[in-house]
Amino acid sequence: MMEFIRERAQGLVAVAIILLLCLTFLLWGIESYISAARQVIAAKINGEEIQLAEYQKSFERMRQRAQQEQGAEFNAELWTRDTTKERVLDALVEERLVKQLVEKSRMRIANGQLAQYISTSEAFIVDGKFSPPRFNQIAQMMGMSDTGLEQQIRADLAQQQIRAGVALSAFALKTEAQQLAQLLDQKRDIAYAMVQPADLKAATVIDAELETFYKAHQEAYRVPEKLTLEFLELKLEDLKREAAVDDKALQDYYDAHKPNYTTQEQRSVNHVLIAVKKDAPASAVEAAKLKASLLRGLIASGNKTIEQVAKESSEDIGSKAEGGATGFFPRGVMAPEFEKAAFEMKAGELSEPVKTDFGFHIIKLQDIRAGGTKSFAEARADVEAAYRTEQAETLLSERAEQFSDALNEHPDSLTAAGERLKLKPETLTAATREAISQRFSDAVAAAAWEPEVLNEGLATPAIDIGSNRMVALRVTAREPAKVPPLAELKDTVTEQLKQEKVRAAAIAKGEALLARLKKGEAAAEVMAQEKLDWVKVISANRESTEVSRAVARAAFGLALKDADASAFVGVPLGTGAYAVVEVSHLRLPKPEEIEGRKVEAIQRDTESFRLISSWRDFMAELREAASIKTYPKVL
């Protein structure tokens, strides 16, 4: 199709097209085109538009936040997927719905309330007080002015009031949590026997059965469509080798980035904490100090090591198990009084009790890791690696633009792009969609199946697949999906049919045994007749290892009226076996036997679950009452 257009976009036809475009610009002006391009709509909510630019800012903020929170676990490829983009748009739609509700309800956040929130928010506190420069810095990081951030916070506070109203219905009573804790901690007697499937060698299969089974399960044997691809892959790692490196360039880079090769002095200590609250009465403070002094004397005398005392007496949960070891830390990490003492001590020295907001500490300095700046010679390998990365990133930016330009100019070939980028096209042979996704990304696999790429031989655009990699590809061969004939699959189909037969036989036998038990026959006698082991587990809980998880789930899923009741259930297992199970002797713990923390945790979790559920229901009602149109294709 593209070739047809190119061949005919010559002579009079081309002149006519150009004249038509010129006439359009004269009548309406080029600005109308630019303006229209700027005003792409991503969604409409009750007639109010969400511009693409607003969506893009929100998307980038969410992506950056995810990257900061997840660190090394961040998956850049996930953020190229259409599903992720649509979720971001969905979040924007919900935000706009709540904002419209706030405006309709005429909810307002008073200036005093806004000022109070901003001035006490930890995000804007520096050295214990509100910092205007910090507020401005965060606003700039979010791409906003100070006023814009204030407006955003005002809107967020108003929306929080909506959420708070919904949250009022999401409460859980302590009695509910206690009852749930009882159910979770209950115990039952479980008895079971396993009916194992017969050996496959004992199963017989005739051709008619095989043919019937194959026809009934043909889709299970379908081989998915496969593509052979020609592709170009632009990678930062490859570009690092192209970077021009010499001693002067590295020396200049080192001089410009010297702080990167400077480390702070660090110290490693063991400590014992005797906790006392900051606002504790004087008597409690003196008692804690006396206890710390006595423990210090015990360490100083050599009767016990600080590690032993920390394990026995320290109230710092984070370091107690490690004998009070903190590991190495620089200045600015610990409480000021703790830091001052640690950095004034000599290795091996034991401090007097040191008072901080947490209580009294006994500190022993174990080791010192000197700080300082590495010389150029010492840092050369790191400097070269960083310099190459910086140069490669510049090259990648330039090549990415060249990549896209070459593909736009020659959409039916990768040759021009390869020559311009100094890359040789590679080949991936007979790959399924799943294999293409694994080799590149879901976005690349989706692009390979676009009609113009799949059917017309055109190349995909250059696709960013994360980790500083870009890919473009063409489909050079195609193997349609197919179901191989039975003759090719006979061994596989035969084995699967045999497995199904022996499993079905095990289930039939198990269900027959279950029916006998339900009629009142004694379980021990029935199992003895069938030469099956009748295994009994007394007072099993949900996590008991004496029974399989599948059996435990089924056993605790049965309703028992009281402690004397019993019930039977059959459980098909993934191994092909069938478990015949008897459940009896329900034992519920008494409320006073349940740990208070567990009840509190269950109550919290229940309230959290109900809050999420209530908010979803609330948003569903808002959506149902609203007029919402989204345009995911523009994202």
The amount of helix comes to 40-55%
Share of residues in strands? 15-25%
- Global shape: extended
Mean pLDDT: 87
Rounded to an integer, what's the Rg over CA atoms? 35 Å
Sheet with the most strands, sense and barrel status: 4 strands, antiparallel
- In spatial order, strands of the major sheet run 16-5-18-17
End-to-end distance: 26 Å
Question: What is the structural class?
Answer: alpha+beta
Structure summary, number of beta strands: 19
Counted by DSSP, the helix tally is 25
Low-pLDDT stretches are 1-37
Give the helix/strand layout:
Blueprint: H1 2-8, H2 11-28, H3 30-38, E1 41-45, E2 48-51, H4 52-70, H5 82-104, H6 111-120, E3 125-126, E4 129-130, H7 132-141, H8 146-167, H9 174-185, E5 187-195, H10 207-216, E6 226-235, H11 236-240, H12 247-256, E7 262-263, E8 266-275, H13 282-300, H14 306-313, H15 317-320, E9 325-329, H16 336-344, E10 354-356, E11 359-369, E12 372-373, H17 376-409, H18 415-421, E13 426-431, H19 433-439, H20 442-448, H21 451-456, E14 463-464, E15 469-479, H22 486-518, H23 523-529, E16 535-540, H24 549-557, E17 566-572, E18 578-587, H25 596-625, E19 628-630
Defining traits:
single chain, 635 residues, alpha+beta, Chitinase A, domain 3, 4-stranded antiparallel beta sheet, 19 strands, 53% helix, extended, disordered N terminus
